[in-house]
Amino acid sequence: MSAGWFRRRFLPGGPLPAPRPPRPRASPVPYRRPRFLRGSGSGSGPADAPRRPDARPVRSPARGRALPWNAGYAEIINAEKSEFNEDQAACGQLCIRRCEFGAEEDQEWLALCSEELLTGHYWALFDGHGGPAAAILAANTLHSCLRRQLEAVVEGVVATRPPMHLSGHCVCTSDPQFVEEKGIRAEDLVIGALESAFQECDEVIGRELEASGQVGGCTALVAVSLQGKLYVANAGDSRAILVRKDEIRPLSSEFTPETERQRIQQLAFVYPELLAGEFTRLEFPRRLKGDDLGQKVLFRDHHMRGWSYKCVEKSDLKYPLIHGQGRQARLLGTLAVSRGLGDHQLRVLDTNIQLKPFLLSVPQVTVLDVDQLELQEEDVVVMATDGLWDVLSNEQVAQLVRSFLPGNREDPHRFSELAQMLIHSTQGKDDGPTGEGQVSYDDISVFVIPLHSQGQRSDGH
Amino acid sequence: MSAGWFRRRFLPGGPLPAPRPPRPRASPVPYRRPRFLRGSGSGSGPADAPRRPDARPVRSPARGRALPWNAGYAEIINAEKSEFNEDQAACGQLCIRRCEFGAEEDQEWLALCSEELLTGHYWALFDGHGGPAAAILAANTLHSCLRRQLEAVVEGVVATRPPMHLSGHCVCTSDPQFVEEKGIRAEDLVIGALESAFQECDEVIGRELEASGQVGGCTALVAVSLQGKLYVANAGDSRAILVRKDEIRPLSSEFTPETERQRIQQLAFVYPELLAGEFTRLEFPRRLKGDDLGQKVLFRDHHMRGWSYKCVEKSDLKYPLIHGQGRQARLLGTLAVSRGLGDHQLRVLDTNIQLKPFLLSVPQVTVLDVDQLELQEEDVVVMATDGLWDVLSNEQVAQLVRSFLPGNREDPHRFSELAQMLIHSTQGKDDGPTGEGQVSYDDISVFVIPLHSQGQRSDGH
After folding, report:
1. Are A342 and A220 in contact (CB under 8 A)?
2. Per-residue confidence band for B71, with pLDDT thresholds at 50, 70 and 90
3. Are residues A300 and B192, on separate chains, in Cβ contact within 8 Å?
4. How many Cβ pairs closer than 8 A exist between chain A and B?
5. Which of A150, B61, B231, B366 is the most exposed place for a label (fewest CB within 10 A)?
6. Which chain B residues are Cβ-neighbours of A365 within 8 angstroms?
7. Distance between terminal CA atoms of chain B?
C-alpha cells in the first residue's frame, strides 16, 4: 500500500498521499499488514445494459477476486454509474496481536498471555458522495484503525471476562461500592473498539482530505467475524441482513435525516447558532410559505414523536433543518445521510454553515452470536449499499437468496454468482424473480458472506 | 373533585390545594367532567401477611370499585407498604369535544363538524417517591390535561387524515415543495397530545407543589383506548404488556438511569455546569478510588455503547453521574428513575445540584392497533408499577393470566380477581403458581384490561 500504488490504483492523476496512522505507536512486534482486497469496480466495457431506453449505461460487474483467506466465498461486485466509482470496499483477515506496555510492573502479568493472538475477518462497504476520495481513504484506513483499537484492548477481549484494570492491578477494600463490578463482556470491548475505530478513521480522513485539498464523505458498513461472533457496525444508509431458511434478521439500521430527526433537532435546539439564523429547527408536513403565516399548522419539535398544531410565525418560514421525505430527505438541504466518515469541509451552499456537527461518525454496532445459531450451509449475511435496498426489500433479497443457493450447491462460486445476480436484479431485467424490472442508477456493492465457515472459530485459540 | 374532597380523600391534614388548569380556556361548551376513579389503596387492617418472618405487614388489598363505564372489568388494587400510599391510579371515560375557535373566519368550517365528539377510555398508574403528593396531583390532573390537549386537535384526530391547517386553510401553488405533504396520521396527533399532556401536567405539579410547600415526584404509565387503538404512554419504570394466548408483547419500556445512560451523559457533556464539579460523567465498572489513579481501567462515555480502557485521572475519582446497577442504579446518587412528573425542587443532598434537567417528563408512546388483532375473550393488557415486575417476569405474569382466566369464565369479577392474584403472587406465598415465594415490599398497583370490549369502537361515530 505504497503511496504510488495507492494513487495508481484509485485516483489516476490524483495528488492524494497515502494515509498515515493518526497516533504512531512504538511497538517491538513487527507490524504484519493483513492482505486486503478492495473491490474498486474495475469493470471492462459496457455490456449487460438495462432494457429501459432511459437507462444510463451500466458496466458489467466484475467478479471480485478470490479471497486470500479461508472465510468462504464472500464477494464484492460493483455496478458503476460514473467514471470513478464512489462505492468502495475492503475485506481481509484481521490479525490482532497483544499490545505492548512500557511499564515494568506490567511485564509479569503480560507474560501470562504474551502469546495471545486473535484473528478475525473483516468486510467493509463505503458509499462515497462528493467524489470517491473519502471512500477510498476509508477502504485503505479503517481496518488499520480497527486493528490498532483492538490491539489496545486485546488482553480484555481474550479474557474470560475483561479485567477492570488492563494491567491486572487489583484494589482490595472492604467498602462494597469499591468492590462490586459491573459485568462487562469481551464483546463490549469489541463494540467499543469498532466505535473508536470509526472515529479515528474519520479524523484520518479529515486530515488527509484537508492536506490534499480534496473533499467528500462516505457511509461505512463493516462486518467483523471474531471469536464466534459477527459484529456489524453501520454509519450511513447501507444495510446488512441475515438470511436463513426461515428467518430474515436485520443486522443494521439506516441513519438518515429522517431516522435521526430527533437527535438532529435536539442538537439545533441546544446550539441554535449552528443554523446561523438560516434554517428552522421545526418539522412541518411541507415547506411553509407566506400564505401560511398566522395559520395553525401541523408541526413537531425535537422532543416529540407525535405531531401537534402551532400558529405559524415568521421564523417558521425559513428553510427546514430536515427537508423532504424518503430518498429525497436532506439534512440542511445538502446531505442524504446523517452518519458517515469525512465531510469535514462540507458546508451548506453559499453559507458558512457546517454539516459536520450534525453528521456523526459513531456507528451503531449489532452483535450476532454465530456460535449460538444452528447454522445451515445456506445461511448468509447480505451486506449492500443503498442502491440495492432502494430497489429490493429484505424479503425480495431473501427470496432471491433462497431460490438461488439450493440449486447451485455444486458451484464453488455460487456466493459470488448470487452477489452478481442480486445486482442484476436491480438493472431493470423484467425476467428477474421479482418480475418487476426495478432499476437502480446508483453504484451498488454487495457482499454475500456464508456464515457456515464463520461458525467454527478460526482464530488462534 | 372539590378541594375539600381532594384533601379529605388523599391527604388527611395536608394543605394541598386543588389543582388548577394551567391555561384556562374560555369555552362556551359546558365542561363535562368525566367521573374518575382513583384507587388509593384504602385497605382495611392487616391481614394476609406474608409468611416470611422479616416481612413487613401488608394490608389486604382492597378490590377496586366497579368502573362507571363500559370498559369491561379493569381493576386496580394497591398493596401498601406505608401509611400513605405512594402508588396512585386513575381511570375513567375521556369525553373529547371539539375545540372552540375565537376567530370568525373559522366558524364556517367548524360548523361542518360542530357535532364531533370522541370518547375514549383512560387508565393511569402513578408511583410516587418522596411522598405521595405528586402522584395524587397527577392522578387528579393528567386526564384533564390530556382532554384539553386532545380537544385542541380533535378535528385532526377525527379526520380521515389530519389536515395541514387546523382551520381548513388551503394554499395553492405550483411549486411542489410547497404542495407535497408528509402523511401524518390521526394517531400521530394522539401521540402528540399524550406527549404534551405529560408536560403540561408536569408544569401543573411543579406549580402546585411549590405553592403548597410540598415535594416529591412520580412515574406515570397511561393507557388510552381511542378509535380502535390502545395508546400506552410511559415515563418511568412501570410497565404494560399485552398477554394473548400465543403472544406476550411489551407495550412500554422502562426509563431508568441505566436505560437512559447515553441521554443523561450526553446532557452532562453538553452542560457540564449541571454537575457543579461534584460528579464525573464517565461510567466505570465500579466506583474508583485513590489506588486506581494512573491505572488503565474500563470506562465508557456518552457516545459509546461499548467499553474501552482509559488512564484514571483525578477527576475520574468523583462520584459518578450514574452509580450502581439494576435496582440500585441511581441518577446523581438520588433517583432510581430518569423520567416522571414532579421533582422540580429535588436536589442532590447537601448541594444545589438539580435532578430536573436530567429527569424528563416526556413519555414514550406505543400504539397497539386493537382493531387489527383477532381478539380472543381472554386477551388482556396488564399494567403494573415496578413492584410487580421486580418479582415477576413478563412470562410469569402471562403464565398466571393464562392459567387463571380460562377456569373462571363465569365469574363476572374474574379480571379483578386476576389483578388481586397477581399482587398476591408477590407477597411470598409459596403455593403460588410460580412456587418460588417471591416477596415485594414495594407498593404495587395492577390494572388488568380486557381488550375484547375495547376492540369494538365505543366512541360516538
Report:
1. no
2. very low
3. yes
4. 153
5. B366
6. 305-306
7. 29
